[in-house]
């Protein structure tokens, strides 16, 4: 008989910011922040036979976003066994009293995740989409390994030309909206990811609008002694602020600056470098050497460069001058002759914050939208992804500020201990 968990009492001794707080008080901190859409603490469950995890939602909201267990390899490739709630072991303690484990599955046909089906979230408060919308995703976790998805609406699609897609039986275009990852290109960072079209960016096959916090979460074995796990909780967060056009990754309440130097040499973000170059050339009179008139205008990437933050002169001789200009989101090498600009190259891109001038992907109907998933997302490569413990997932329908994110990050301190109950996850 498997062991499942329920929070039955007050918190055990806790540390620093969380000292003296019960699980209910900690939940109150999260639910008391304006703009909350849903908060899964992995303690709250529905009544009845299945006993699925459900979310804390605002008063009056009927949809509690019960989490189903699924194996997306079975759903899309027709391989592997069905997933159950029992495939997500419980820790019995964590920031709110319990946590689920995302394991290093050795069976390549088994990639379990927890999810809210699209038909149960389409048009709901969780379905944050379209122009003028902002979002925050917060995940309290212990990272064992990996850099992939933690939580969000991020169906990457099974239509990409990958080695693993050869036998796919259910081919679908990407349905990306917003999600929080454990780093991606900067493993262990808090990586926010958004998409305006559900699919790709800058003519690359992947979506590339993403931010990376300056801080990086350490790798901690999931089977470490409890005292090690208790001090290893990390608060990952991402915010997209539509008014500022900024996507930011936050680790333990701190964003920090992160730059990518020489994006022209980056395997993926060379596409953003080219989108910047094409947009710049398109703004010049006449057809420039190397300009692609067929490059889609909505995929240009030209962050605002009105006033430089700093200007350094790299070389000056006669009427020729070379400057390195730093702007909020870019660093640019500019060549001038007689005071007129004659050449420009993007030499660094700011990864945190990342400039994003679009709205969030807005599916025409439920069939064109993706589910909200926790622990993994549907994607063509079928990799293991993130592994470790997840002790809470919260979504807000606005961009939280640094002070609010600091309050949420403080809840990682002094985990609450739950009580073990003999139960197999199903009502007897």
Given the helix and strand composition, which structural class is it? mainly beta
Give the quaternary arrangement of the chains.
Answer: single chain
Helical proportion, percent range: 10-25%
Beginning-to-end CA distance, first to last residue: 12 Å
Q: What sequence of helices (H) and strands (E) makes up the elements? A: EHEEHEEEHEEEEEHEEEHEEEEEEEHEE
Gyration radius, to the nearest Å? 23 Å
Q: Number of helix segments?
A: 6
What does this structure look like?
- The model is unreliable at 1-16 and 419-428 (pLDDT under 50).
- The N and C termini lie close together (12 Å).
- Strands 2, 5, 7, 12, 13, 19 and 21 form a seven-stranded antiparallel β-sheet that branches. A seven-stranded antiparallel β-sheet has the order 3-6-20-8-9-10-11. A five-stranded antiparallel β-sheet has the order 14-18-17-16-15, with helices on one face.
- The chain is globular and about 80 Å long.
- By secondary structure, the chain is mainly beta.
- It folds into two domains: 3-255 and 354-422, Jelly Rolls (Sandwich), CATH 2.60.120.200; 263-351, no CATH class.
- It is built from six helices and 23 strands.
- The chain has helices spanning 23-31, 72-77, 118-121, 226-230, 270-282, 402-410; strands at residues 3-6, 36-40, 68-71, 93-94, 100-102, 112-116, 135-145, 149-155, 175-181, 191-194, 210-212, 234-241, 246-251, 258-261, 310-317, 320-326, 330-337, 340-352, 354-355, 372-374, 387-396, 416-417, 419-422.
